Amino acid sequence: MNPAPGSTSAHPAAGTRPSARITATRRLLAGPAPGILLCLVVGALCMLISHYLSSVSALLISIVLGALWRNLAPVPHVLDAGVGLSAKKLLRMGIVLLGFQLSLGSILALGPGVLLVVLASVTITFLLTAWIGKLMGLDLEQRLLIAIGLSICGAAAVAGAEGTIKAKEHQVATAVGLVVFFGTLMIPAMPALGLLLGLDDRGIGMLVGASTHEVAQVVAGAGSVSAAALAVAVTVKLARVLLLAPVVAGVGLYLRRQHSVHGDKNPPLVPLFILGFLATMLLRTTLDLPGALLDSASMVQTLLLSASMFALGLGVNLRSIFTTGIKALLLGLIATLIIIIMAASGTVLFPPT
């Protein structure tokens, strides 16, 4: 008996549903979704851990976990696309929201002496690092990434400047690795140096904020001293973060004029997310925003930055840095010593009031 009209197409269609689902699943797994989901989950877990270990930042936990995984066990290739996207897109979204934590009023309240120390520390460290890196024969992209990362705000600055500099993936990973390595050493070292210099808690906070590479490392270092030290350290550090926009713009302008970057297109003068960061900072400064909005923005910002720090940590190959990046490692040490000297001398001369 022949099948009824219309029934012949029903069975093949039903038979193709499982294969269509399998194909859709494979496409999903081949895309960025697994890597992004993993980064967000780890970021959330690190926030939870940080809640119970109040002296340790979620961002620091995230980047250390990522670096440990990368250097102790293989990372599945199925995560590559999502991890790469998280290291860039999620981080830039987090930096935009970071602007809500900055008020020009609180930064100006530090006083002209402290602001002069911040400006001098960032400017001199950046310029000397870039110049010394040139003398050492490092690529322009590598020395600029190291100079920006170790003078301003660590891994976030490296990732923020990456698009403007058109750096290669291994150059970004090297700069981030140096931030993690030297910045982690600074967590106990800077408070200890402050005690040796005879500084009070607020002075130690200024020293930590003006020298330590990563915001998370600043929180960890100053938080181990006192609440007063932490408040000053974070404000000073955020003043350094504020300099990310003009430094990236200056680097972009320099590269446009020199035409020294790879590729045919000119690098962007100011990346869009930097403009977003400035916009949210101005909103915080000029408007009386509800506390609930600021708290929510802070939570989402921490999640995005924690997820992106984990992704950046997964790109840090410490063995490669120590074996093939000796010049970069030495430049990272020199840059760290420069900013410590600038911050320490500035704090002694212009202590916070």
Overview of the structural elements:
Keywords: Cell membrane, Membrane, Transmembrane, Transmembrane helix. It is found in: Cell membrane. Pfam families: Cons_hypoth698. This protein is mainly alpha-helical. It contains 17 helices and no strands. It has helices spanning 10-30, 33-52, 58-72, 80-98, 104-108, 112-135, 140-153, 155-165, 169-196, 201-211, 215-223, 227-242, 244-258, 272-286, 291-313, 318-324, 326-349. Helix 4 packs antiparallel against helix 15. The longest helix has 28 residues, at 169-196. The N and C termini lie far apart (97 Å).
Radius of gyration: 23 Å
Mean pLDDT: 83
Which secondary-structure class do the elements indicate? mainly alpha
Q: Residue share in helices?
A: over 70%
Described by the principal axes of the CA atoms, the overall outline is globular
Number of strands: 0
- Kindly report how far apart the N and C termini lie: 97 Å
Q: Which residues form runs of ≥5 with pLDDT under 50?
A: none
**What is the element string, with H for helices and E for strands?**
HHHHHHHHHHHHHHHHH
The total number of structural domains is: 1
- Beta fraction: under 5%
Give a topology summary:
Elements: H1 10-30, H2 33-52, H3 58-72, H4 80-98, H5 104-108, H6 112-135, H7 140-153, H8 155-165, H9 169-196, H10 201-211, H11 215-223, H12 227-242, H13 244-258, H14 272-286, H15 291-313, H16 318-324, H17 326-349
